[in-house]
Amino acid sequence: MKRSLLMIYTGGTIGMKQDEKTLALCPFDISQIQEEVPDLKKFGYKIDTYQFDPLIDSSDVKPDFWVRLCKMIKKNYDSYDGFVILHGTDTMSFTASALSFMLEGLEKPVILTGSQLPIGMLRTDGKENIISSIEIAAAVAPDGHAMVPEVCIYFENQLYRGNRTTKYNAENFRAFRSANYPVMAEVGIHIKYNEALVHRPDKWGKPLKIRTKLDTNVAVLKIYPGITKQVVDAILKTKGLRAVILETFGSGNAPTGEEFISAVKSAIKRGIVVVNVTQCNAGKVDMSTYATGVSLMKAGVVSGFDGTTEATLCKLFVLLGRYSDNRLVAKGMEKSYSGEITI
Asked: 258 phi and psi, to 5 degrees?
């Protein structure tokens, strides 16, 4: 049976072409993608397209954009075997993380990709990224179900779990890294899937549910040597704040001074959820290792385990939207919903 895919162009570098007269970069019509990337025709898939109007620079992405994407996927879910989202690289990891929590019960591939050079440029990485993303989105496992039924990012020959990624390089074609989770597929002459890493439903056939109620009353507080009480208070005493992500040192360490610990304790007593993630590119939070981490644990800080800041933020948005009781949010942060943390 002919595979059917929906390609959604939201904006970003990948969809740009150079005007022949002015040489300025302008977005091209995504409905003409098979003229721009003629090799797509060789697959024999049915590839429909949708283009956001206006297009969105990924630096301008907001939660309502994620809601719009989820509703679009939900509306078209029964009509397609998979989805490919063309997206700017700057916030791609945030969008992939958000969708992984908002698309509950997902059984079809949602592959995000983009490029570092516009598709209309000679040395673009965009064409290969699109071709491989399409092939992965259409891939079928031996049991007849989708090979990768989750939200992923494909970039520069590698397929990542979306909520494990961070944009790592602004200039290299390998823009993303997944430091705490292996790549799910590597693309060379053949596409080699690491099937043991793919999250697959216990039972197939459940309806897709989307969670579109998000609460964004979250702040990120990056810890640094010499951080002042005024800075800490400015964040922790923000009006309406429901959760804070502490970006700490090493395996979850922070200053042990009374002023800092008291400020954190006070925030937690006011009901604010405080989650600890490490600033390190790789590794996990373990607040039991050093005295500095133990102080946070005793204060009631929740471990973010080996999750990224991007995934932790989006997870909080969804859980805060789901629960009015912050105690349930704190408990939820210690669970893995879509493979975003290793417990």
From this structure: -60, -40
Query: Hey, what amino acid is at 64?
Result: D
Hey, which residues are catalytic here?
13
Pick from 338, 184, 221: nearest CA to 176? 184
Helix (H, G, I), strand (E, B) or coil at 62: coil
* CA dist 239 → 145, 245, 300, 315, 317 (Å): 47, 16, 21, 21, 17
What domains can be seen in the chain, in order of their start residue? Answer: 4-210 (3.40.50.1170), 218-332 (3.40.50.40)
**From CA 231, how far away is CA 238, in angstroms rounded?**
11
Rounded distance, CA 324 to CA 185, Å?
Answer: 39
pLDDT digits 0-9 by tens, 143-181: 999 999 999 999 999 999 999 999 999 988 889 999 999
SS3 state at 210:
strand
H/E stretch holding 65: helix 63-76
The Cα 54–Cα 10 span in angstroms is 9
Render pLDDT for 128-148 as a digit per residue (tens, 0 to 9). Answer: 999 999 999 999 999 999 999
Question: CA–CA separation, 250 vs 245, rounded Å?
Answer: 15
Six-digit token pair at 317?
């948005």
